Amino acid sequence: MTSSCSLALPLLLALPVAALLPLPLSSQMPSSSEIDARVDSMLQKLTLEQKIDLLGGVDGMFIRAEPQIDLPRLKMSDGPMGVRTWGVSTAYAAGIGLAASWDPELARRVGVSLGHDAKARGVNFLLGPGVNIYRMPVNGRNFEYFGEDPYLAGQIASAYIQGVQSQGVIATVKHFTANNSEYDRHGINEIIDERTLREIYLPAFEAAVKQGHVGAVMDAYNLVNGEHMTQNSFLNVEVLKREWGFRGILMSDWDATYDGVAAANAGLDLEMPSGKFMNRQTLLPAIQSGKVSVETINEKVRRILRAAVSFGFINHVQTDLAIPLYDQRSRETALQTAQEGAVLLKNENHLLPLDPARIHTIAVIGPNAYPAVPTAGGSAEVTAFDPVSFMTGLSNHLGTKTKVLWNPGLKSLNELFSGASFSSPFTVDAAGAHPGLEEQHFDNPDFSGTPSFTTTAHHIASWSGFQWAPSPRKRISIRWTGYYTPKASGDYFFIVAGIGRDAYTLYINNQKVLQQTPREGQIPQYVRMHLAAGTAIPIRLDYQPQTDRITLGFGVTTLEDMINPDATKIASLADVVVLCAGFNPMLEGEGHDRTYELPLGQEQLIHQIVQANPHTVVVLTAGGSVATEGWIDSVPALLQTWYAGQEGGTALAQILLGEVNPSGKLPISWERRLEDNPCYRTYYEEPGTHTVKYSEGVFVGYRYYTSSQVKPLFPFGFGLSYTTFEFSNLAVTPPDAHVDAPISVSFDVRNTGDRAGAEVAQLYVGDPSAKVRRPAKELKGFERILLNPGETRHVTLTLDQRALSYWDAASKSWKVDPGQFIIYVGDSSENTPLQKEITVQ
Which of 402, 530, 646, 697 gets the most CB atoms within 10 Å of its CB? Predict the structure, then answer.
């Protein structure tokens, strides 16, 4: 199947003015006034106690039923890459991959398909899309979101929402707002000035409300400027509901409510997954004492009922049994997301596309080659019906014409832990007489007193990736002590991995080398040490689990032990190598941030494979940029697939073989080094606090790079093709514009190569005469264009007043400073060959 790229409008067409997107299948929808009248009638039939009960979810994923007013139980599902919660489903490419398509029309089709999938499973609310801004590449949930630019994110999100809601399913935009890290999401207090909020972190939500007419918004876990988002009345009430006119449901993220009275007064309508804080016990006394008004409760219930009435949920069976659970239409859409989202970053000497007539053997190597890795971890991880791995996708596509050899290349962490038997290298005593480590258990969390029992451990291999786990009735602590005596001199990797809020400290040779504090946000850690053969090194591992059992992994390895020698052998036998590296749901996902470096051993694997076969294509699976400094110069071709969904293997085969011309463009800036990122020094909390100050202000991503001497490895908007394009004939009318008048920007794009392909024309605006410091360039328009060889397309984009504005803190409004503006057009933030100055009066 080949790509069917379609053209996307630069600005989404406005929907009919309505509080919520109407259900399209109804021939006659009631007006807003008729809906409100029906809701008021339903509200009058409920007691105050019944109303309060409706403010808390039930059974994890439902709004409770109220038979007295014919309100059925309303069902939710995790998203946003598939209807996840209720069993096997279609897995689409990750949100950041969808953003990399720069294709709002594709986003709309994804939404329609998700709406079909939801109706087939009786789902009323899809918990997506996520639109938090990509601030740093290590954020564990970047893969769910739409990149670093608020305009691009807003256009993709609005189209996605329109598609979902056109099928009679409510979309839920999340996480409002600034959920830009996972490592301490319940405790982090983000200090963000209002201009930065307005220009960077709020516009995608604003577009979701004003353009997408989204039916629900989900509050985040984090604090913004000292208040948890579920208690942030400025953002929830003043901005979201009053200024933007949002009339839908504002719900909490799961267990993101911390104070029932404060949340009720700050605009929260629905506490999920249950009424732990917004319940009768809390709110009835608050109403009696005057801390919460009855009208506040009524307004929340009105919003819930209005959504149910507007989307036709009253006396309606949501499940559509005529829609296949394994839907071929959805599968086709999933394939297109994988095709359009892949970004070709490097292609030296035109290694790609591969010529099947000249390729007799392909070696597919790496931990992400097989099985498929369609999504990262957490609430967005979808169990797909039949996910296609990179290896099987290539093999199935090539059939018997070409041999496809496979080797994972590296041991997994679980293999390392389970294989880390504490035999001769580990001993309880320095003399080496007793294999293993001494294991002491304490009936308290801080290793106090005498151990409750002591034994000898021969392995610690109970880690199985990130998990949520309940707190134990009684906290315990466990300590392992002993010695490690290497048989050969060399570099050794000591690896520790815990789950959830596990805490641990590893001491080697009486020095603290690894530590994990008891907070949500864990990734496996390792330390590299050079050890001398035959020298016994003291080991101590202190462990404070969040549960009453061991959920830890610990092991020691060398690179020689990690890398499979057969991998380099098959690489040398092949005409070309496809090396599949990156992350997986255990190493990247919700509740924990990931490393910037590739997982342990992968960089070394790349070096060994390239030495064995210089014709190597690296295929990355990651939710953002990764460290490439140590290997990028030796690799001739690099393809970023993000998390490609269930059809990733099929799409990869089509792209590598030239049946699909890669057209994805980066929705992020790709750093040369992590230290180059403008948020590097302020991403993590200030020592001893939970506070993070967004000191970079509006200079996030390309806004920083285009305004400074620091340049990225690959700029925002960049992506290679198998053909070439040329921009020309820029015209801006009128050249001397009035601040209130629209500005028309037109230009030509020509395919100057010999293949059909899609280019993304990008329009940036600069404001050098502004009275405040502004980024050199800001994206204000784009269009994805499919062109045949030699074809030229004339493109016209329109700029409105908002496109020229910045947020003025003094007047608390959008402001345009009359004067000089610069219009830039090109194919990335760094390559804008067309430029024109205009004057705005």
Answer: 646
Q: Six-digit token pair at 286? A: 């608050």
Q: What's the mean pLDDT in 390-403?
A: 97
Per DSSP, the chain holds a count of helices (H) and strands (E) of: 20, 37
For the segment 795-804, what is each residue's pLDDT rounded down to a tens digit?
999 999 999 9
- CB of 667 closer than 8 Å to CB of 700: no
pLDDT value for 225: 98
Which of 767-788 are b and which e, b meaning 16 or more Cβ less than 10 Å from the residue's Cβ?
beebeeebbbbbbbbbbbbbbe
Residue 390 DSSP class = H
Edge-to-edge strand ranges of the sheet holding 361-365: 343-347, 637-640, 616-621, 576-582, 361-365, 403-407
pLDDT tens track for 73-91: 999 999 999 999 999 999 9
203-210 and 150-165 helices, crossing angle to 10°: 30
| Catalytic member of 103, 219, 253, 269 | 253
The full set of domains in the chain, from first to last, is: 42-310 (3.20.20.300), 335-410+563-662 (3.40.50.1700), 413-561 (2.60.120.380), 723-840 (2.60.40.10)
Average of pLDDT values for 813-826?
97
**Does the annotation count 253 as an active-site position?**
yes
Burial class (CB in 10 A: 0-12, 13-18, 19+), 429: exposed
| Model pLDDT for residues 544-567, shown as the tens digit of each residue | 998 878 889 999 999 889 999 999
Is there a contact between 30 and 272 (Cβ–Cβ < 8 Å)? no
DSSP letter string over 314-381? Answer: TT-----TTS-SS-HHHHHHHHHHHHHH-EEEEEGGG--S--TTT--EEEEESTTSSS---S-BSTT-
Q: How far apart are CA 409 and CA 562, in angstroms?
A: 8
Count other Cβ atoms within 10 Å, centred on residue 349. Answer: 8
Helix (H/G/I), strand (E/B), else coil: 409? coil
Strands 125-127 and 170-176, sheet pairing = parallel
Q: At what angle do helices 150-165 and 104-120 cross, to 10 degrees?
A: 40
pTM of the model: 0.94
User: CA dist 336 to 91, 331, 382, 812, Å?
Assistant: 12, 9, 18, 42
Report the distance separating Cα 799 and Cα 745, nearest Å: 8
C-alpha–C-alpha distance, residues 595 and 589, integer Å: 11
pLDDT of residue 518: 79
| Residue 561 parent element (H or E) | helix 559-562
List residues bridging with 53 in a β-sheet. none
Q: At what angle do helices 648-656 and 390-398 cross, to 10 degrees?
A: 60
